[in-house]
Design the sequence.
């Protein structure tokens, strides 16, 4: 079942806001067997909204829209949809009650703009939005469905999960879509593709392959559209198995989860704890680890040692080594890892020290030079990397690589 | 001058990758006077790519495309564009040399797939891509321009900044677009809009207003399209000035920059230093502060004290207070802030302790309860917040709010 997404808002087109709604919807709907065939972002104008809707409805039966439903004058989606569906705006008591409940305690009086949110087109099904003041609207015409949702991600997600997907599944038959993603590290895309060229020939026609490269990592995705789940699962399983003799050393996981989640799940399962000692990553490893609910079971804490004196005083790095080798060096990063493990009292630790850039590089240690160490019952292991010139990318790769180093070490020791 | 963006890749439509390229391009091009009127994301199929190109070219004169230029079989953009422009693929020595330079030391031999990247349509201008192996291609037909760039953000950004914008500016006359964004905190959108209703009436017709709400914050954006810069700047300046008597207490800044950047710039200017003591934010404040180049001038480091024992031992929080009031309490967060300032030897500090969720809440302290403290020459100031149920949002709002608290305190004390 094909569908399209339309996101509305000038802020998307001038780049003041990144459209994360579409990707999230794509993920959720795809899992449920719906194919998103196009995503369109348009300006807050009557013409742009109507034209994009005309075009989408000429191609598919389901259109999901987000944005432009706020109480202010620049938001015109509701009025535009009312016109589009030959409908007029009428007062809806349920929506009004919801607005009142949500604003209780936050504002003195419900004002005209808030009251205006309770006006809805008379030719749509209004769907309850308990997490926001804008209504969710479900239109039907000539057997096709158009749903308009608020652009605020939390409100859109609540509507999609609790209302839209259940209603769509009740109405439409869907094919099964099975994805399997293998994470592969430290191999350039073209090299990997060459090594896999014979393997690619063995992929059955109903399964498609995609390479999704990002810095240091390639996600290899197999997708089957099928009515026979068990055959597809089996075929995919065999394909993945046959990857190991070819590139097994570079395979990191068979799940499309970020490394901080995989590492966290492993630590939780083994009942182990972890600490961080972060210089160039500045707290990013701590942030990623704690972005996962329940991480307090394995993450005890960390020391962000940006300044050398902090490395010395809080992590016990030897002052002479700092002077002799510099902060971005093997002795220092190893002492940082051992220090964090000891000071924070954990089973494992990850430490980073590098030159994220854009300044601070030298001929000997150019921007992108990063030392990473992990410590644990296996002792301390460290490795030097040369990432590149871009600060954000260096921070991300340093964090990911530190966690990959520990994850692989633990995977090997548990084998 | 209107243009459209087309981003290509199944990964965008199934949500495995968020399209951040479009927003970035929108920002850069808009600054240069180009209006992005539509963004379209399509699948890696010949039909989808050609159809989206037909449609875009029926509306505008410039189309920028990203994605689908990798060396693997699932990437078909180059061949599709060659067909579309009645062109054939020919070997290009410059592109080949660039591929060799980039892969030197990373691979043993240049393989067939890499060699294939040097095949380019004969009816396009090939633009050098010194940061990646895929070529950038500039097509012209019937006076219209289509540019195809790699989807890897670093490569696309390099091409847009160094090649595409200069070439477009040379070719097209552009209107001036002036944006001014005012950041407003802690006021619901509808309340703000009501308070500003008379003010809105005073906005000249050639200036448009938009409300961009996000949790806890509203960005108020004024946009002028003009040929008379000085008049527009003056009109906008007066409009912003006249905001202060109405909502001055809630205005946080007149620049569309994230708070960590504004805070960092202020600390740098004043020659002051900062440290963090993070519990519920888990390193996110440290990460945000250090995401800015040159932050080592003011950021010395932080302690991520996820576990209570770490709060006690490393930050000097009193054990009795932890037992008596709990970790999420005023005495504890104030001691964390004072401890971080002392232990890390800085002028200022920010501390957070809260229940990010989804678990860990109680009737007295539900999920979303967060205590935040700032410390400095003004002593210690703390505040309790009730953010909501969503973990990610709670972490982001806690980090932002802590930095806003310090920024406002410093702004006031410097007045």
Sequence:
């Amino acid at each position: 079942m094909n569908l399209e997404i339309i996101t509305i808002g000038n802020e998307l087109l001038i780049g003041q806001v990144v459209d994360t709604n579409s990707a999230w919807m794509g993920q959720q709907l795809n899992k449920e067997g719906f194919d998103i065939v196009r995503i369109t972002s348009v300006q807050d104008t009557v013409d742009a909204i109507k034209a994009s809707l005309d075009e989408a409805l000429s191609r598919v039966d389901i259109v999901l829209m987000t944005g432009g439903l706020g109480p202010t004058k620049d938001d015109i989606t509701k009025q535009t949809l009312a016109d589009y569906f030959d409908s007029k705006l009428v007062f809806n008591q349920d929506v009004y009650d919801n607005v009142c409940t949500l604003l209780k305690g936050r504002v003195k009086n419900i004002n005209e703009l808030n009251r205006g949110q309770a006006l809805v087109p008379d030719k749509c099904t209004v769907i309850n939005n308990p997490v926001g003041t804008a209504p969710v609207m479900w239109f039907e015409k000539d057997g096709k469905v158009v749903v308009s949702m608020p652009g605020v991600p939390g409100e859109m997600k609540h509507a999609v999960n609790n209302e839209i997907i259940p209603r769509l599944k009740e109405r439409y038959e869907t094919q099964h879509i099975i994805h399997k993603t293998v994470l592969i590290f430290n191999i350039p895309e073209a090299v990997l593709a060459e090594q896999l060229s014979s393997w690619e020939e063995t992929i059955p026609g109903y399964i498609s392959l995609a390479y999704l490269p990002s810095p240091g990592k390639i996600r290899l995705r197999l997708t089957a559209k099928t009515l026979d789940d068990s055959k597809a699962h089996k075929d995919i399983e065999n394909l993945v198995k046959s990857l190991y003799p070819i590139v097994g050393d570079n395979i990191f996981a068979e799940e499309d989860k970020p490394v901080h989640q995989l590492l966290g799940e492993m630590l939780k399962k083994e009942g182990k704890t972890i600490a961080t000692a972060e210089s160039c990553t500045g707290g990013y490893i701590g942030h990623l680890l704690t972005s996962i609910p329940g991480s307090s079971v394995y993450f005890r804490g960390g020391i962000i040692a940006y300044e050398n004196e902090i490395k010395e005083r809080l992590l016990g790095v030897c002052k002479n080594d700092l002077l002799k080798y510099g902060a971005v060096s093997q002795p220092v990063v190893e002492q940082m890892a051992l220090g964090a493990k000891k000071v924070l009292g954990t089973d494992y630790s990850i430490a980073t020290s590098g030159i994220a850039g854009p300044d601070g590089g030298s001929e000997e240690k150019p921007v992108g030079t990063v030392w990473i160490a992990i410590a644990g019952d296996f002792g301390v292991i460290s490795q030097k990397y040369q990432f590149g010139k871009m600060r954000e990318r260096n921070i991300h790769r340093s964090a990911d690589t530190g966690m990959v180093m520990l994850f692989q070490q633990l995977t090997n020791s548990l084998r």
